Description:
disordered N terminus
Amino acid sequence: MLRLRRPVATIATLALALASCRPADSPFEPTPASPSLPAFALVPPEGTAADLDVAGWNIEWFGDTQNGPTNETLQLQNARDVILGTDADIWGVAEIVNQAQWNSLESQLPGYTGFLASESVVANGASYYSATEQKVGILFKTSVATLLDAKVILTANNTDFAGRPPLEVKLRVSVNGATEDVVVIVLHMKAFNDGDSWLRRQNAGNALKSYLDATYPTQKVLVIGDWNDDVDVSITPEKPSPYKAFVDDAARYRYPTKALTDRGVSSTVGYPDFIDHHLATNEIAATEIASSVEVYRVDSYIADYANTTSDHYPVLSHYAFGTGGGSPPPPPPPPPPPSGAPAKVIVNEIMANEPGSSTAGEYVEVVNVGGTAIAIGGWTISDGTAVRHTFAAGTTLNPGQGIVVFAGASGIPAGTPNAIASSTGSLNLANAGDQVILKNGTTVIDSFSYGSSLAGSDGVSMNRNPDLTAGAAFALHTTISTLKASPGTRASGAAF
C-alpha cells in the first residue's frame, strides 16, 4: 500500500516531542495512592481468560511535570483506567519518568505487579536508568505470570539504544491449564528521522537480532515497545526499515503488527506511520490468534486523550495457550526417527517462487527422516531439464538433519542453518510448474512434480504436509504454518 509521508520538517517537529531528553531538575510530588479515586473512563475489556493478551504502550512522559500531559493526576487516573479496563495479561510500557508516580499507578492496579528497568529487581538496571529519565517497564497479572528473572541487555549498544537498553523479563505463564516460560523484552528505540538516528536504530535492531539468534533459538520471545520506526520502509526519507533483518528472517521472526502497517494504520496521535511494534519469535508467532493484533483506540473513551494521557495508543496482540478458547495450539512436531531405523532422505520443502526477483533465492530442502546417518556425496538434484546440483564428496546427513540447496550464495538468508549454494549456480525452478528430482546415480531417491498453484505466491514455499513425512502431499507453506517458508528448520520454524 502506498502511503504518503509527512514532510521532513513536520516529522522532525513531532519526533522532538517523542524523543528522550532530560527533564527539569525540579522534584515532582507524586499523587498519593488512593484506590477510592473515581474512574474517569470506562474502557471495555480486550483481554480474555482463554488467551495470553499482550499490550505495549508508551505513556507519554509519565510523571514528568515539564513534558507531556500537564495534569499529572488525570494522566495517572486515565492510565489506570486504560490498563484495568483493557484487561491484558502483560503490559510493556515506555516513557515512565517518575518512580513515585509509577508506584502510585501500580498501587491502583489490583491483580497486577510490575517494575521499571531502574528498580533493584532488574540486574544492572539502575546503572543505565537514572531517576530523571524515561524508563521502560512491565506490568503483569499475578494470576497469570510469575517472575523468573529480569535484567537489562545489550548494554554494549547503549548509545544505539539512545541510552535505554532493553529490559528482558522471563516469566512463567499459566493460561488455560498450560504453563510455559515466555521471554518478554521491552524497548524504546532512538527517535527522530535524521540519518544518524536511523543508523542507530538499525545498529540496535541488528544487535538485538544477533542476541536473540544466539540466546533464544527455540524459545517463545516477544519484543514489545516503541520502536520509533516502521517495518515496511523507514520514517527516514529514502531509507529501508532499520529492522529489515528481522522482516527478512521469516523463518525465525514475525511482526504481528506488520499487518497494521500494511493497512496504513497509525499507532500514534497525528503521526502517519506505525511505530509501536510487537515482534515474535516463530515459536510464539505460531500461536498468535489470527487477525487479533490491534491498535486499541482508547481515545474513544477518554476525553481529550492526546492532551490528558498520551500521544501513543496501546497496541495489543493475542496468543493461544492450552486447549480452551482461541485458536488451537500448533500440532506437536513429528517424533524423532527411531534409533537404528534405516536412513530415509526426502525432499521436504521447495521454494520455486523466490522472494523478490533474484532467482538465487530458490531452494530445495532435503531431510533425513530416518534413524541412521547416510552419505549423500555425489547425489544430485535436478529440475525437469537438467542436473542443477551435485552434493560434494563427504556430505553426510545425520538422523533428523536437513540441508538446504539454494540456487546461489547471494540468496541464502543470514542465519539459515546448513545451507549451501548450488554447484551449478542455478536451480531453474519454473513458477509455471516443474519437477524436483533427488537421485543417487540413476536411482531416484525422491521426486515431486508441482504445478503453478504451488508456485504462484512470491516468497511462499511448498512443504510436505504433514511436515517431515515421507510420501505426504505438498501444500503451500502458509496453509500449514504462520510462516511463508522455513528453510533449514521445521515448518513451524523450530530446529530439526
